[in-house]
Amino acid sequence: MPKVVRSTIIDAPVDRLWSVLRDFNGHDQYHPIVAASAIERGYSSDKIGCVRRFTLEDGSELREQLLSLSDLEMTYSYCLLDTPIPLFNYVAHIRLLPVTDGNRSFWHWESRFTTPPGREAELAEKVGNDVYSAGMEAVRRLPELAVAEI
User: Fold this and answer.
1) Residue 47 CB contacts under 8 Å (≥ 6 apart), including other chains
2) Distance of CA 50 to CAs 42, 63, 92, Å?
3) How far apart are CA 10 and CA 30, in angstroms?
């Protein structure tokens, strides 16, 4: 069972980064592979159990469900319900922590899943690079995260 982990330091206060990442339906605003996203049944994007249906730039459609969300701990977990990519039993966790040296943020993103035999390394690399690392780099460039110079 592959475990994919990516982490980074973002040069923004943790509360500002959390305000971006907390929106379970906001990834279409920054992630380069997400073209459009909507929460099903009109639920709010912070309701545990809500499902986001989104389309990738290549036209693929995915559905993910919010499993947990904690403002206190700045964490959330979600799972894949439907995907054209053969990832099974996929569960991911996002966690933020303050970095007091410079008022920055530590962002940890990880998942575990199963794949067809022999595709573990390929799909782990795809998730780690095309989803996690690409998303982190896109968030890093968001103007609303820029720290004002004093």
Assistant:
1) 66
2) 9, 10, 15
3) 15
